[in-house]
Amino acid sequence: MTEPGTWQLPIAHTHHLSASAGGLSFVGGAGDLDAAGRIRHPGDVMQQVEGAVANLASALGREFCTLDDVVRLKVHHAGAVDDWQVIAALARYFPDPMPAISTVLEVMQPFSGQCLQLQAIAQRGWRTLADIRVAERPVPTAHRDLFAGRSVTAGLRAGEFIAVANRTAEQTDGTMPHPGDGVAQSHVIMKAHAETLAALGASFQDCVKMEGYYFGETHDDWAPLAEARASHFREPGPCATVVPCHRLNPPGAATKIEVMAMREEWNGFDKYIPREDHWPKRVWDWPIPLPYRQAFRLRDTLWLGGQVPSTPYSNMGWFNIGSGALLPQTAFVMSYIEDLLRPFGRRLSDLKLMVCYFASDGSEATTQAFVRTLADCVGGALPPLTLVPKPMMHSPDATVEIWGVAQG
What we know:
Order of helices and strands: EEHEHEEEEEHEHEEEEEEEHEHEE
Number of helices: 6
Distance between the termini: 26 Å
Shape: globular
Largest sheet: 6 strands, mixed
Strand order of the largest sheet: 6-7-8-11-9-10
Structural class: alpha+beta
Number of strands: 19
Helix content: 10-25%
């Protein structure tokens, strides 16, 4: 339970709604939930916006932040609405420049009646910093009236922290280049992100996190897109999380990608920030050569790559531990996270955000069982959680991927 008189997730376990690591503050999945954990406007994504934003503001207040301090807003939504409609509905709660708003269309949500959850990364007082840079995001012509002339943020630099909103390959005129071709679209997206980062004084080498979405359930579906994304990085790359999607807006979109980065200004120049990197031998590697890292520390914040039930000590792919069994695989994945935190002198209780993708039949009972397993592994109050159920994860055998941020 959370404190009386505030919103909470409808789970039986003690959980935090917000937390901080280094200079950043995090909120997990803020939804249109009341003090008893009930959705106030079940089944209506647009009506859930106001309550979800109010709950986001409440959670941020615990870390002495406000909505004005949000740098990056991640939106998981369900319903027959366009992503631009969702962005516009949220934008009215934020001043200019608005945060980088990333959207993902999901066919499921964790709790009954839920259509929307908001995950936020905030930095207290960033609007008063000397180094604020904004790169604008072109809005397709058909959706411009939604924003009443306001500029939409593609990338935002708040001092050292940089958030670049996720995007498909959709063009300003609303067309989709290379319909259905995830490899070609990956290069279009990464080119756009490179331009956004450059406008903010950064590059892909400064990235601390990449998140992506693709269609598929086999190695052959995943590998070509993975190689396309990876070709834009060099070692040491960011921590990465890429999971299957089941719907994307607009039609023809085959993938969606976003990045976050850190870069410092020093003597008038933008500089790369070195990071402390550990990769315990037990923790799996990818089955193809990729430049990403599993965990590193930067500015008292630990970033983790998405952990999956792959074979330990190897790059052999999925580990047949309870093939297709969510709860045993979740416990196993949590052991990887524990392994990654240990070389930094940290443990599971130091997690300040967990983002969890898991296979589900769509029932709230599956969500509850999944959360019970997380609570058993953490062994104390759960950190802020973003819970994203999926009809299927990477394959019928592999059911879960979890990444997080810890106090460094």
